[in-house]
Amino acid sequence: MDYAAHYPAQLRSGPPATGEWWRWGPHDVRLHRLPAPDAPVVAILLHGAGGHGAMLAPYGRLAAGGAEVIAPDLPGYGDTRVGGPVTWSDWIACVADLVRAQTRPVVLIGASLGGMLAYEAAAAVGRTVRHVVATCLADPSDRRVRRAAARWPVLGEHGPALLAAAQVADGVRVPVRWLTRMTAMSADPALTALVCRDPRGGGGRVSLRFLRTWMTSRPTVAPEDFTVCPVTLAHPAADTWTPPELSVRFLRRIAAPTELVMLEGAGHLPVEQPGLDQLRDTLHRVLEGAR
C-alpha cells in the first residue's frame, strides 16, 4: 500500500527501511529498521490497531540523526507470521523482549493503541527504557476510553462483559473496521480510505481473543506507581477518534516526570502542520535527553 503518496515530504526523504525477521516464541516478527549503528539510542515505534510497522516506519525519519529506529509488525498485523493465539499480554511481552534484545538505551514511541503498549512495556522492562513518547494513552479499564475507541458505543460500554461471557468464540477473527472507528484515522479522507482497505492493518482482521484481553485489561503498574522513566504525551490536537482529555487524565496520574505537547492541527495519524514539526522537535529533545 502506497502510504508515501499521502505522507508529507519530511516522512518520505531518505533511504527506505530495511526488513528483517526476528523469531519470538511461535511467531516470526517482521522488523522494519532505519539503521544508525553509531547512534547512542534505539527508538522503537509501536503501531496501534489500524497500523503496522511499514506504515509507521517513515515517522522514524523525524528522529533522523538521534536514534536507530525499529518498527515491528506486531503479531496479527503487517507481515509477521503468526504461530499461535495472540493476546494483549503477548503484545506487551513481545515489545518487552525486543527492548531487552537491544544493546543501547531505548526510547519507546507509541502511536494510538501503541502508546499504552509503550507504557506497559516500559513498566515490564524497567530502566533500559529511557523515555516513553505516546500520541495517546488509552487505558482500557476506563469505559470512556472504550466508548471512544469502539465503532459502536454499546461495544465500548458492555464489551468486556460480553466478550468474557463468549470466550468460546475467542478464535473468531473479524474485520478491524467492524469494531473500531477506523474512519477517524486521519483528517485526509484518501489516507483514511487507504488504511481501511490495507489488509495488513486497518483492513485486516483481529481475533475476539485479542479484543477481549485488551478490553478486560488494567495497567499492570498503576500510573501512580509508574516511576520507570519520563512520559511525554504528544497528542494530536485535532484527533476526532481519541479525545485528548482522556489521555491527559491518565498522564496526570503518572508518578514519573511527564510532559504534554499538543500537536496543533494534527489528526489521529498526524500528517498535518504545524503538528508534525512539533512532533519532530519533541522527539529530538527526548532523544537528546536519553543519550
What does this structure look like?
This protein has 291 residues and is of the alpha/beta class. It has one domain (4-142, 219-289): Alpha/Beta hydrolase fold, catalytic domain (Rossmann fold, 3-Layer(aba) Sandwich). The chain has helices at residues 53-56, 88-100, 113-125, 143-149, 153-165, 176-179, 189-197, 208-215, 244-251, 275-289, and strands at residues 18-24, 27-34, 42-46, 68-72, 106-110, 129-134, 173-175, 205-207, 231-236, 258-263. Helix 2 (88-100) crosses helix 3, helix 4 (143-149) crosses helix 5 and helix 5 packs across helix 8 (208-215). The model has no long low-confidence stretch (mean pLDDT 92).
Outline:
The chain is an alpha/beta fold and 291 residues long. It has a single domain (4-142, 219-289), classed as Alpha/Beta hydrolase fold, catalytic domain (Rossmann fold, 3-Layer(aba) Sandwich), CATH 3.40.50. It has helices at residues 53-56, 88-100, 113-125, 143-149, 153-165, 176-179, 189-197, 208-215, 244-251, 275-289; strands spanning 18-24, 27-34, 42-46, 68-72, 106-110, 129-134, 173-175, 205-207, 231-236, 258-263.
Number of beta strands: 10
Overall CATH architecture = 3-Layer(aba) Sandwich
Order of helices and strands: EEEHEHEHEHHEHHEHEHEH
Q: What general form does the structure show?
A: globular
Briefly, what CATH class?
Alpha Beta
Report on the biggest sheet. Answer: 8 strands, mixed
Strand pairing plus helix content: what structural class?
A: alpha/beta
Unreliable sequence segments: none
Q: Compute the gyration radius: what is it?
A: 17 Å
Mean pLDDT: 92
Number of helices: 10
- Strand arrangement in the largest pleated sheet: 1-2-4-3-5-6-9-10
Tell me the number of structural domains.
1
CATH fold annotation: Rossmann fold
Distance between the termini: 35 Å
| Helix fraction bin | 25-40%
Strand content: 15-25%
CATH homologous superfamily identity: Alpha/Beta hydrolase fold, catalytic domain
